[in-house]
Specification:
Number of strands: 17
Number of helices: 12
Largest sheet: 9 strands, antiparallel
Strand content: 25-35%
Distance between the termini: 39 Å
CATH topology of the largest domain: D-amino Acid Aminotransferase, Chain A, domain 1
Helix content: 25-40%
């Protein structure tokens, strides 16, 4: 069985690493000849909207998936016209690629969000904030990730410069959410409709980039999060792994965005769950029975951004599992992560503290 993947970055790499024990083979389509997953299968070098390359990928693959949500939706639609085995479906991409459409979709499903307004002109921006309390966040409707494409507005004095920086893009204005925590829920849904939910991840961001994701087994908001993500799964007729990012505001969850793919906040599942998100993604798109999502002890993930510590320094920390992506260090780039899994809560806290210190020392964000 050969799996085609649009994208050959670290997420595709981790999908392939989870697939080899299952006897699966992989073919990747990615515009970069240096993409880090390329060595784990056949690597087709070409643009995501190159129809001839898409047709070649479809011809070589039994099932096709993608590793990130900025793949052009029309690319997956093109492949869907040639094969029924494209997961997640292209309509999930269409919704997730536009923040306004995404927020409207949440509201249609009864999933609460922050207040938001469409902003197409500077006049729209001024009208949206008039008579309301700051702060706000002005965001591009598409192609924003890891804190890119957004500007924080603390007062009226910020409007002109914010608009100048984003005026070439369709935008959305969002009211700032005074949250206590950022959390995410990762779920898997198979072709035949079997669903499994992972424990909530509690996430720490800095500069818009995820730094730490910690498994919160038996969290008091687990059921609420499962309810919201299940509405997405059913309405989208979703297949594969999905991640729904949420704000915890006084015990009420507000949806921020969803990712139709395996997700950074679920990397702890590689060592910290009975079945990783990557293996369950493959099981889901192949309609195999889904694996247990139960946590195994205390588990968390720490990202290394921009730079790498010495491997020996990481592995000297008890219960640390290092995952290098094969990517050269670069400012703001995710180059590796490390997971921790322990039975002892005390040991867990000590290991996470030491890993955070290492991450801070090499941080080039």
């Amino acid at each position: 069985m050969k799996i085609g993947i649009l994208g050959a970055g670290q997420l595709a790499r981790m999908i392939a690493l989870a697939g080899y024990p299952l006897g699966l083979e992989f073919v990747f389509l990615d515009p970069s000849p240096e993409a880090c997953a390329g060595k784990l299968g056949e690597h087709l070098v070409g643009a995501y909207d190159d129809l001839s390359m898409l047709a070649k990928l479809a011809a070589k693959s039994d099932v096709i998936t993608y590793e990130f949500e900025n793949v052009p939706a029309h690319a997956t639609e093109f492949i869907e016209r040639r094969t029924n085995n494209v997961y997640p479906p292209s309509n999930a991409l269409n919704v997730s690629q536009d923040r306004l459409n995404e927020k409207n979709y949440f509201h249609d499903l009864g999933i609460p969000t922050s207040d938001y307004w469409t902003v197409d002109t500077f006049r729209d921006l001024k009208l949206a904030v008039f008579g309301k309390n700051y702060p706000f966040i002005l965001k591009t409707r598409s192609f924003g990730y890891d804190g890119k494409g957004q500007v924080f507005l603390n007062s009226e004095a910020d409007l002109a410069s914010a608009w100048e920086s984003l005026k070439d893009y369709a935008c959305i204005l969002e009211a700032f959410v005074p949250f206590q925590r950022e959390v995410s829920i990762i779920a898997a849904r198979s072709v035949s409709g079997e669903v499994k939910y992972y424990p909530l991840s509690e996430n720490l961001h800095k500069g818009g980039i995820l730094r730490v994701a910690e498994c919160r087994e038996n969290d008091h908001l687990q059921a609420q999060a499962e309810d919201y993500v299940s509405r997405l799964l059913e309405s989208l007729n979703y297949v594969g792994i999905i991640a729904l990012e949420l704000f915890d505001v006084d015990g009420k969850l507000l949806a921020n965005e969803f990712a139709p793919r395996v997700h950074n906040s679920g990397h702890w599942t590689i060592e910290g769950a009975e079945t990783s998100q990557f293996e369950n993604h493959l099981r889901a798109i192949l309609d195999l029975p889904l694996g247990s999502t139960a946590a195994v002890g205390n588990a968390a993930m720490v990202n290394f951004i921009g730079g790498l510590p010495e491997t020996a320094d990481v592995l000297a920390i008890d219960n640390a599992h290092l995952h290098l992506y094969g990517k050269s260090p670069r400012k703001g780039r995710k180059v590796a992560h490390v997971t921790v899994r322990t039975e002892s809560k005390e040991q867990f806290e000590e290991s996470i503290s030491n890993l955070k210190k290492l991450a801070d020392q090499v941080d080039e964000s």
